[in-house]
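Researcher: Please generate the 3D structure of the following complex. Treat every line as part of one assembly.
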Amino acid sequence: MRSGIQLRLIPGGQVPLAAGEPLAFDRVFREYAAYVAAIGLKIMGRDDDLDDLVQDVFIEAHRSLRRLRDPGAVKSWLARITVRRTIRRLRRTRVLMLFGLDAPPDYAEIADGSATPDERAQVALAYRALERLPASERVVWVLRHVEGESLDAIAEMCACSKSTVQRRLRLAQQTLEQRTRHA
Amino acid sequence: MLDPTGEKVEEAFRHIGVQWDGARTEDNLRVARQRIRRRSRTGMAASALVLGLGIAMGVSYRLWPGGREVGKTPTVVQDPLGHGLRFSDGSSARMLGDHSQIEVVAVTAKAIDLRLTAGRGEFDVVPDPGRTFAVHVDEIAVRVLGTRFRVERDDRGAYVSVYRGKVEVRWPGGVRVLAQGQTGHFPEEVTEAQQDPKQDPQQDSKQDRKQDRKQDRKQDRMTVEPAAPVPPSAEVARPAAPASRAHFRALATRGRYAEAYRVLAGTPGVVENGAEDLMLAADAARLSGHPAQAMPYLERIVHKYRGDVRAPLAAFTLGRILLYQLGRPAEAADAFALVRKLRPDGALASDALAREAEAADRAGLKERARGLAEEYGHKYPSGRRLESVRRYGHPE
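Model: Done. Output below.
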């Protein structure tokens, strides 16, 4: 162990990234790919685009990775890239669906094996309702209610102010309630 | 009914989980690496393409400087020091001396016309096949397509010196083309020979012109004819008949140097004691392939007519003959030094300094060459001969 660098062991035996070390792409990828995939899945509600999204996020990160020296900042930085990339994908998917070039996925599939049929139905219903929201509102709503992030964390991930997050959450909530009433 | 924020939905959301294991990570990592490599190659190819295009455009811009303004009317501004004019196509006009005056007559897409109303002006013209550049002195027009030349107005008309390229000088009743290194006083005097061509025993003929061209080409190859007849010094020449003198001047000013030199060799007295006549004689000799015979005339100009505007050009020409044609670099260095001494801020000063360094280097005067090279770098940090001058004075 090198002196002056605090290391800790994580499950799986991989040594975490240390401060001041140049960040190796492969290491960062292996450590955070699952995290990026989890955020992406919850925002998009589908698994079929997930591999592309994860690759896109890390390819974008690759360009600036050498300049990043603080391993503590990697996670939030990747989360910001993920949110930005996911919003772009949601908007593209909406346009494709408009022209009939893409079909809505079966949202029930994103629930794990332990979910009951009723819970699967709830997940599918919720995501179908989220389809109607603008991408920026959908993202903050998912991060708040599905991922369980704090307002501050959402503001950082979305690169906006906390009040913007609150406003988007409010608008999203109103839209969802109106939809469910009509339904 | 769905309550998106209700407890049931929140419970359902807890079951959303990504099926992401180590194998999927490795698969995605491999694909991501491939995409990064592909992207990097594409980026490099795009950069190379952009660089290639940039270089191609730059080269074409350099090779065809007039192209940047083709078909457009160039703009003209006074230079910051108020000593001349600058045109957006890269051409410039510089007033020499405090009393010089240049007027802009017309600036259009097809022509730039200036008028020299007083004093002297020096003109540097960027070639443009679609646009003419002319300087007018009263009824005399000096018309060019890419050159550097000087026009001096005096009581008789205009004195024109060409440093680079060619100019065509037109005046009522005459026209003459001046090439690099040539000078002329305009309008030219009408001589007997010009008035009555029948009296000219060697009047224009195809054969003669062919011979002239041959001689000029020979001069271009910088060959020396050691056995050429040696015209005596103008100081000891017997005065020639006015008809012969007029005939010689007519031939020399028309650029028929081979014929002019034959007249000169046969009748040395055709050259009078004047800087202009001496320059004509020097031109006739060197441009007909007799550089050694041009030297006495040039030396006489630089020593007897030091104040004349032709003196620096004569010294410069002397230096070139000594350096490039006669292989006497030490004397050539002194001749180029004289150019700067005669006119330290003249148009030939920078070129003379560079050539002096070259001549000193060739003569083995390494220390002098090194000093001159340093002086050049100091005085002309963006001089066009800077790269070559830097080599002088250093061991091979």
